[in-house]
Design brief:
Helix content is 53%, strand content 15%. The protein is α+β, with helices and mostly antiparallel strands and 295 residues long.
Amino acid sequence: MEGATDIFTRLRPRLLGVAYRMLGSVAEAEDVVQDVWLGWHETDTATVADPEAWLVTTATRRSIDRLRKARSDREHYVGIWLPEPVLTDGPSTPEQLQEASSDLSIAFLTVLERLSPEARAAFLLREVFDADYSDIAATLDKSEAAVRQIVHRAKSQLREERPRYVVSAADHQRLMQRFAAAWNNADFQAMKEMMAESATLVGDGGGFVTSFPKPMVGGERIAQLLFACTLRNKDQLELRLTTINGRLGVLRYIGGKLESAQSYDTDGERITQVYVQRNPEKLRRIAANQSSSLN
């Protein structure tokens, strides 16, 4: 018989996956999972007919509660709020499940912010984790019909926001490698040509560092902005291509210090979206991970 601790350990990656996608924060997700563990430890697990359902339900409900509070806190956030990025090319990830990169991308998590906490939970459980409607209904304490309606509305609400094209990881990687090479070579013309005319850049400084209060629109303007950093910092600039939230992105170092984690959306031929995380609070884990990997 599998023990209570073994069950929790086996399911912990799934719980982290649910909580991180709900909250967009590794720290918050880990707090949720710790709360779930304490509740599991205090429960007579021998009486739990379906441990996985119990654990996922508890993690989801606690994530909903935390997200409601977070929404209130984010009303006072300085500038644009973006999810905390995570590295997904090594063992230090918020989960170990091999989910599709499109379900973990910064773009996807940002779009999910448009949903209410319950709608976000219902959508994720159904569309990402493939839960049955009956299980979602039990988790949210709603009828199955109500859950079906919530998921339908959520899909309709997100339809206009999600990319209309599917880009293979290989195509995305090839474009990002070309873009990074052009950037390293200070080839502004090549950088500009790889930007879609309607490209947008969104930055999160959290009030700690300078960032744009609203999205920057225009591929040439974005290329100029990125290129300007090269001109200002010259030999101090280092670009590292790495997988961020399931997609190849850029870690930008200035003077040996992590300055930003940049996630990119592409159509396979041009860059369409750039998400620049500069908030040092949200970069701490990546900086520590990269530092330890070099030692």
